Queue: 3 jobs
Job 1
Amino acid sequence: MTHPISLAFLTTFDIGPVEAVRIAAAAGYRMVGLRILPAAAAGEPDYPLLSDDGLLAEVRAAMDDTGVSIGDVEIIRLKPENDWDLFARFVDRCQALSARHVLVAGDDAEPGRLTESFARFCDLAAPAGLTADLEFMPWTAVPDLAAASAIVEAAGRENGGVLVDALHYDRSDTTLAQVAALSPARVNYVQFCDGAVPYDPSDEGLIRVARGERLFPGEGGIDMIGLARAIPEGVTISVEVPHRQLATRIDPLGRATMAMAATQAILRAAGRA
């Protein structure tokens, strides 16, 4: 069974959503990921797609023209206190885009409260046909796969999932055996990239690489073939390779094409093409 491949927002971070849809189509992707709410990066601007109806219509037109759909939408950060009205508007926008998945990050150090917030967001997302996918990241309150799984299972929502990012799997206390043991019902999509080895294990170093120094699959030291074999067959792969320096030399279409070719090479090597 082949894996649908999606172009992650960060791989072509330097373009707008309409161009992202068209570049995804040109590079052979079936889906594209978009960002509507800012992540934690300092100085990150607001995203007009949340409120600009004209831009939403342009994105929908590009989707109709190309056949590319919206895979995941970023990003919900669950904190001790959350703006649930904002989250509701976000979900409405995701539904208007016919999106499938929402990337969720955990920034609340109190596990019980974080679990309650995750369950509440799952309930908000479910009527819109969205999954809520909790991504573990070593510097957050959800540092590894075991922590993410515990929250998702405790929340007990059918649309709740665990998001495995290749970089965070490699940099956290997570094993391929744990990835392989995940119920396929809890894995809605995964993120592929590679990373240099050795690496700076500090939070600052991990964040710097995650947001701007990732490598194409197969170019670093992560066991990408092993990961490809550990994930559920047929699950969507979002290729997330932000590389700020490379972006000064290679245009978005070129980077998207390189990311696709690298991912396909890994899948062939893993017997998953």
Job 2
Amino acid sequence: MDVTGRRGRADPGAPIRVLLVDDEALMRAGLRLMVDGVDGIAVVGEAADGVEAIEAARELDPDVILMDIRMPRMNGIEATLALNAAGARARIVALTAFDTDDFLLGALRGGALSFLLKDADPEVVLGSIRDAAAGRARVSPAALSRLIALAARPAESSARSPAERAAAPPETITPREWEIGRLVARGLTNAEVADALHLGQATVKTHLASLFAKLHVTNRVQLAIRVLEHDG
């Protein structure tokens, strides 16, 4: 199967094809019981580590991968990086607990679309899968607060001087683009950004598309992390 050069679902009218990746068989079984056959979602396969996940993605061509972060042999970050480097079509949702913060941040930087807490309610799991299939990131408010704290923590910005963490945006990014990026990092929607800056929503979308390209990110969560890392 050729997984390069394609993004998004091959057939939007078909069931959402999901690959479950977790080194705990009980966790995979629980997820399968929770989502398989519900609301147009079909579990098409399972994998116990990142190596198996890459092979399964090539063979099964899933729309969404629920990817555990901490696994033997190849962890979820390494697998996510490898799949994205290969141009895999599947959107990746990282599975995590709050005791794996550094792994989680690495997964989002590496190309995961969003993440899901392992103790999430069934409706949250189902919603996350549907959002991922549509290309939408989903992060719970509590988890987003944790991510912001991680991205902006002193340990990661202490090597930079106050001048380096000042208001000026990174090179090549316009002041307007950076202003919009900061509002997105605060959690504002496109409509709210447009209202705050007295712009049209189409203009906001154009600036965001430019920001995504310049910062090499694929969703609003990754954009927020990059903005917060720079501003410290």
Job 3
Amino acid sequence: MRRVLTVLAALALPISLAGTPAVAASHSTHATAAVKHATAVDQLKHPAALVAQGPDDVCDFTDNRPTLHLGSSGAVVQQAQCYLNQAIDAGLDVDGEFGRITQSATRDFQQCAGIVVDGRIGAQTWSFLSFWANAPDAPFC
């Protein structure tokens, strides 16, 4: 915190760029810029924060992202099926049952995305699915 205040105080001092004096900005302007910078850095460290979630997400069944496999069921499977339909136009019934057809669509998606093809939806597949499904150019493949 002390370092941030020191940097902010230094930025508020008048400086000269290419012989043209710069106008000193107020402390609150730099504080706002520092907060925006910290938020942008946090989003780069956590890219999932850049992907739509909740009301702006094309599929809004749940925010949970557990590992899914043959036999899984519920709202998380509906979320995955909706994402698969959006991302690769899989044509799945969004019924919440992870059966052979959903497993096959998952493998098709994984192959298309160039990630591990195992027919399971784990962290990597969720990440790609949510990004691809919410991308403006979807469906892909």
